[in-house]
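Title: Prediction job returns without error message
Component: structure pipeline
Severity: low
Priority: P3
Assignee: unassigned

Description:
Job completed but the reporter wants confirmation the result is attached to the right record. Sequence as submitted:
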Amino acid sequence: MPIAKCDIFISYRRLDSAIFSQWLAASLRSAYGQQSVFIDTENLRGAEAWAQEVENSLRVAELVIVVIGTNWLSIQDQWKRRRIDLPDDWVRREVEVSLQEKKKILPLLIEGAELPARDGLPESIAPLLDIQARKMNSATVSSELPQLIKYVGETIGKTPIAVDVIHPAPMLRINALSDDNLRRLPKAMPNWQIISRVSDGVEKIELMRKFEFESFDDAIHFMGTASRFIDRTDHHPEWVNIWRTVVVYLTTWDIGFKPSMLDVDLATYLEDLYKSYVKKVGQQDLALP
């Protein structure tokens, strides 16, 4: 039976970057089609019968993305041996085959991870360090993901599926925050940053905040609860959810993507709402004298 061709193979460690890697696969499939990406699952890795299929998919891929989180190198087995040092480690085998087959490889460093030192890797995969890596984290994912998708498309020779986003027609007459108010904002709202980025082909000045939650369910509940207030005020954020993180970008479309008091009001509401999701009592608070 012929091997189904995939354009992109995603290599990752389940205990290091499973949520991010599955989200990345979904994003790339949206851009290049459902059959364009191969990413295995826990079930695949646990079934020896799947080993050959994984290797075959790797050999026919145009691009191999190696997702490296902060625990990629240090994860151990039940005998306290680093998995990367074991010849039958799945991630090691995936990188070895990619190098042997001279695949196009993209090391993708996430959430502050850095490439390991050369002497920290088995010799067979040390050449991975000679390949230019890209970085991505939850605070900047909204601006970095389109760039990554474009790069992947250029690498595999495909054009992303175009999706037109409908923006509201400018209707409000409201002033943008003055330069003086923008300078004062970080002191008044220290958890929010003022950023400038190009998105949808235009430059936007935005208020940006990353919210971290105890669980994915809390993150989604937060967004659902906030949506009621957002719908009533008819001022909508751009936000991204990745597992337990929600990244919010606020700007006012009607005045050319600049912050206004509408954004300050929404940021204040989100800040107050977030307090109800923050754990207030820890185990140490319950300890008896």
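Comment from assignee: result matches the submitted record. Residues 198 and 285 are 45 Å apart (CA to CA).
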